[in-house]
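2024-03-11 09:14:02 INFO worker-7 job=invfold-0412 stage=load source=structure_tokens
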């Protein structure tokens, strides 16, 4: 490997380390404050805030985030192994669990779809109002010009 590849690998590892440190700090903060949600949620909110305020530029974490996202399936292997360990639970309560997961999925899907539709409709109405106002202003100028050209 050449030095550019090593530099890119080192840069990616540094970004991954930064993301892990932020997650860990937020996880400890959530536990210390006894928050009713996980440190991952707090970390997400902190990262979004840091990115939106410009404290952290997206380029600072881009490669590390891309690597984490591209290898995300590896992080679910422990989850799959734990499911295999609880086969008795799945045999007894499997239908209820899958129904709860399915209903939850549908609720999130529908809420997202309705929210997106509402936002799109809201934006269309705003755009239509702007177009109407511009058209009325343009017609108003034309009517004023026509009125000035008429003989008195």
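2024-03-11 09:14:09 INFO worker-7 stage=emit residues=152
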């Amino acid at each position: 490997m050449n030095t550019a590849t090593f530099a890119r690998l080192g840069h990616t590892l540094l970004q991954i380390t930064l993301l892990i440190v932020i997650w860990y700090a937020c996880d400890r903060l959530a536990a210390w404050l006894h928050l009713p949600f996980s440190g991952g949620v707090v970390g997400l909110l902190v990262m979004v805030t840091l990115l939106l305020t410009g404290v952290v530029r997206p380029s600072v974490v881009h490669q590390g985030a891309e690597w984490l996202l591209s290898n995300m399936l590896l992080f679910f292997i422990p989850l799959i192994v734990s499911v295999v360990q609880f086969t008795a639970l799945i045999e007894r309560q499997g239908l209820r669990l899958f129904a709860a997961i399915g209903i939850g999925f549908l609720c999130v899907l529908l809420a997202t779809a309705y929210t997106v539709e509402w936002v799109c409709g809201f934006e269309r109405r705003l755009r239509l109002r702007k177009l109407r106002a511009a058209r009325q202003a343009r017609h108003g100028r034309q009517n004023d010009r026509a009125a000035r050209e008429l003989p008195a």
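2024-03-11 09:14:09 INFO worker-7 stage=report msg="The radius of gyration is 27 Å."
2024-03-11 09:14:10 INFO worker-7 job finished
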